Amino acid sequence: MSDSDTTQRMSVRGESDGVSKFVAETRGHELVMDDPEAMGGEDAGAMPVEYLLAAWTGCLNATVRAVAPDFDLTVESVAVEAAGEFDPRKHLGHAEEPRAGYRGVEATVDVDFAEPVEDDTLAEFTAAVEERCPVSDNLAAETPTDVTLQRE
Fold first, then answer.
1. Of 2, 80, 126, 127, which residue is 20 to 30 A from 43 by alpha carbon distance?
2. pTM for this one?
């Protein structure tokens, strides 16, 4: 099977709805993004960098559940917490350094398995989850980007 037979194209479309508020839509789902008032927004939604963490937590949950059968594990529940250090100065035009994005991110995944899991199995399972999680892959590996600005 070729890559073109299995590759799915994802897309999101959105429009500005105020100074920093942005409303995006994908597959009929609405995502509202905004900056906190302290950063000039109205705080009408999570910041895009918070959505990135949310995407990662959701993807880790889905990947835990997708990988578990390969290890003959039954998952009862999953809870994920993610965090990262973000300095907004470059984004806001106040400094050239540090980088505009997260300096690093970390996640803690609490999995309640139906049966006891040995330490070595848990280590292999964790490695498989991190390797197979698409958002983990995008965060850890350089993903080419191509932005085109157009005048209306």
1. 80
2. 0.91
